[in-house]
Input
Amino acid sequence: MASQNKFHHLLPSIRFRQSKKQLTPGTAPGTVEHIGERHMEEIKITVEDYDADHYEEFIIDNIENALPYLDSSTKTWIRTQGLHDIEKLKSIWNFFGLHPLIQEDIVNTSQRPKFEIYDNCIFFVLRLLTYSEDHQNIQTEQISIVLGSDFILSFQETDTNHFKPVRKRMAEKKSRIRSHNVDYLAYALIDTVVDNYFNVIENIASEIETLEEQLLEEPEDQLLEDIHKKRREIIHIRKTVWPLRDAINSIIRDDSKFIEDNTKLYLRDVYDHTIQVIDTIENYRDMILGLHDMYMSYTSNKMNEVMKVLTVIATIFIPLTFIAGIYGMNFDPQVSPYNMPELSWYWGYPASLSLMVASAVVMIFYFKHKGWF
Output
């Protein structure tokens, strides 16, 4: 167990937040009901207003506070963190005239990554994976993005600042985000999500190396459970990335007035990154299957070694049992017509023991000569 304790703390687990609550079968499409965990006490709404000459960030209580900026010629990014307050979210959705199906998908956090085009906007659903140093696990979160002509809305489950790098770039005067339209900001957000996948798979690689090291040193029963756990995590990550690849490909191929051709060039780069992530995940899945086969081979070989030792011991005792069986018949020489002279011989007992020992020694040397053990 020492080896298990040595390595097991190095294997962070992945925590996939999945709610057991689901919409009732037969519910009408567009029914808005929060499906997921509540991570915040109050919903937080932040406005990022910008153009090539200025950048401003502030928190608002309701969407009406953002009207002066939405009516101006600047571009506006409204970040909403927390999805449990449906009434407050509806004030945002109704103001921008979002389709009921968009509203339903935003608060149903079990959505798969996808891309949909509507008359007044484009809707994205992403799955963000991040590695938590504090909790030593990998967490997943749904990110919803609504792209309009001069605004962009984002909805997150938590108040974690995953898009801090994007905001930092926006604060720079010569930022490319500020000089481009809001579709470029949407690209930057998607690119940030994909970049986090690389951080996750780097940790997956480290965990696989730890499992391999443990397998080569002193495999324990716990190791098989860790291998199966890591395999399930890789499969879940794969299911997260594959739909995103298809969604980005649809963005590139479809014609939309909300995405400029220049931005599609950058989206092609994101598409290449998703392909790279998928290829890496496939390699890691093969490696995990290889570790599973190695563990099963080790277990099989260990069992074969045990069976070989037991077989050798049993084989050695076969002639000993035969000799003991013969002289254990106890035929009375006065009654039986066939005399067993050894039964009345003075040295019969030590002679039979010597014969047994000699038989065992001969068989041991014979097995060693054959290389059987």
In short: The mean pLDDT is 83.
